[in-house]
Amino acid sequence: MNFKKILFLLVTGVSITSLGIVGCTPQEQNSEAGTQPSTLTAETETVTPAATPTSQPQERPGDVPYVPTPQPVVDAMLKVAKVGKNDVLYDLGSGDGRIVVTAAQNFGTRGVGIDIDPQRIKEANENAKKAGVTDRVKFVQQDLFNTDFSEATVVTLYLLPEINERLRPILLKQLKPGTRIVSHAFDMGEWKPQQTLNVEGKTVYYWVVPKEVPANLR
User: Fold this and answer.
1) 85 burial via Cβ count (<10 Å: 0-12, 13-18, 19+)
2) In the 8-state DSSP scheme, what is residue 160?
3) Among the listed residues 144, 97, 145, the one whose alpha carbon sits nearest the alpha carbon of residue 119
4) In the predicted structure, residue 35 carries a pLDDT above the cut 90
5) What is the 8-class DSSP label of residue 187?
6) Residue 118 and residue 116: Cα distance in Å, rounded?
7) What share of the chain is helix, strand, coil (3-state, %, to 5)?
8) What is the pTM for the complete model shown?
9) Residues 67 and 120 sit within 8 Å (Cβ to Cβ)
10) Chain mean pLDDT for the chain
């Protein structure tokens, strides 16, 4: 459509939008892309700024959907693990950071949250700042299967059965004997828990890493 035709249509009162000449401005496109950071296309990634100075593109889809652990379950998980100020807690799939933040607030525990989703890392950092525990916790955007857990004395997780079983040999190889592991909702297959709790209809499983790992669990 040339300029003369467009001018004619404007003069005669015909809307350009009625002819299908519509679209978002670059600013509008950026806003729309920002609402769903986990589903960015290659085109929108080139114009969407990073959420935080330390964020990075999500390397692959997450292994589990994000469902936060209810606070009563968080409290029970920390209680059964007997976390304290001398512990280092790793939360695998840390989401909004509530387990790590609660441990730091209530017990003075140092904590590390691992999550592959940059939006969850951003949210967790904001929650840690609000709680005033940024000196004791940190959140790392990383693939669980490429993470070194060896520093941990307590590990918490709320994943899925198959993910727990894939992580089991990694955890048993890396973690020191006596390290406590607590899982919300799902067990670890052949590795039977030392304790099972029911918290408001939710199940919590508790293990302690043994000195000698049975061959069937490696």
Assistant:
1) exposed
2) -
3) 97
4) no
5) -
6) 6
7) 40, 20, 45
8) 0.73
9) no
10) 81
**Number of other CB atoms surrounding residue 54 within 10 Å:** 13
**pLDDT band with cut points at 50, 70 and 90 for residue 55:** low
| Distance, CA of 101 to CA of 138 (rounded, Å) | 9
Beta strands in the chain (DSSP E): 88-92, 110-115, 137-141, 154-157, 180-184, 195-199, 202-208
Q: Are 88 and 110 in contact (CB under 8 A)?
A: yes
Placement of tokens 């004791």 in the chain = 136
The pair of three-digit structure tokens given for residue 76, joined into one six-digit string:
């029970």
CA–CA separation, 172 vs 198, rounded Å? 25
Alpha helices in 71-178 (DSSP H): 71-80, 98-107, 118-131, 161-174
Contact yes or no for 165/188 (Cβ under 8 A): yes
User: What end-to-end distance do the CA atoms of the chain give, in Å?
Assistant: 69
Closest by CA to 124, choosing from 149, 143, 102, is 102
The DSSP bridge pattern shows strands 154-157 and 195-199 to be unpaired
The segment with the largest mean pLDDT, out of 26-30, 39-43, 65-69, is 65-69
Q: How many CB atoms lie within 10 A of CB 107?
A: 19
